[in-house]
Design goal:
This protein is mostly helical. Helices cover 76% and strands 0% of the residues.
């Protein structure tokens, strides 16, 4: 029986549209201000469209150098985020597969250990982590940050992968084993493709955390050539604190890569959550 479109449905749609417009208002202000020149940004209303849209703000942002080099910050963030995600996906999927398939005290204890790692705040181990990286000369390097983020977010990766791995039927693996496939081949060709919803979820959640992280990058990368985009934005805003058109322009530039990545992976992200809820 089909539901008829009535007054109640209309009210719900109006409420949803109103909430969506309220949530999009900050983004609208961000875009509008970024295309105004310095004088118009100060004198005109924040919600008013620019009278003479200009790209000068974005040109200024991309021509920065030193601690204000947005291009260098984007490059460093891309390298650190991408390599960290590769480690998280590889190690997390393998560890979760072993935990899901080998039931026992050891596997259960390992799973609880990873879950506890999600709860514990990073600040408890920040000083030991800094000392360890400094003693190995990895402070201020891409490799050091990649190892640090992989270690910090590995519990989350294992937790998400384990929930999906437990829903995969054993029959698929047994059929591949009968055909002569090794355990490694079974995992890479049969199991891992079936974990793609969890992979999308891990990639988006961990990618957002790593890309937007400011505090850790400020502590471990400050003053180095590996500074990420949040630290570069901090330096840029500090020098242009009154020029909101430039500040908003650099914010938009920093948002574009991670927003594009989210739009590409959102299907797997939704599938991962749906699979977790069913499991």
């Amino acid at each position: 029986m089909f539901n008829r479109y009535g007054p109640t449905t209309l009210v719900r749609e109006v409420i949803v549209i109103a909430v969506a417009l309220v949530m999009l208002l900050p983004f609208y202000l961000l875009v509008v201000m970024a295309f105004k020149d310095k004088q118009e940004a100060v004198t005109s209303s924040p919600v008013a469209l620019p009278e003479a849209p200009t790209l000068d703000n974005f040109i200024t942002v991309f021509t920065g150098s030193g601690s204000r080099s947005v291009l260098l910050g984007l490059f460093n963030s891309a390298i650190i985020t991408a390599c960290s995600l590769v480690l998280l996906i590889a190690l997390g999927s393998i560890a979760a597969y072993v935990i899901a398939r080998r039931a026992g005290r050891v596997s259960n204890s390992a799973y609880i250990f990873f879950v506890v790692g999600i709860i514990l705040p990073f600040q408890l181990g920040m000083i030991p982590a800094y000392v360890a990286l400094r003693s190995t000369h990895l402070v201020g390097t891409h490799f050091g940050m990649i190892l640090l983020y992989a270690g910090l977010l590995l519990p989350l990766s294992v937790f998400l992968y384990t929930a999906t791995a437990r829903t995969i039927p054993l029959e698929y693996e047994e059929a591949a084993s009968i055909d002569g496939a090794s355990k490694l081949r079974v995992f890479t060709t049969v199991v891992f493709p079936l974990l793609s919803p969890a992979t999308g979820t891990v990639a988006i959640l961990a990618g957002l955390v790593i890309w937007n992280d400011f505090f850790t990058s400020l502590i471990f990368l400050s003053g180095s050539k590996a500074t990420t985009i949040p630290v570069v934005m901090y330096s840029f805003v500090g020098e242009n604190v009154t020029e909101w058109n430039l500040v908003f322009a650099v914010v938009i530039v920093s948002m574009i890569p991670i927003l594009a990545f989210y739009l590409l992976a959102q299907k797997k992200f939704i599938q991962g959550f749906a699979g977790g809820l069913k499991g």
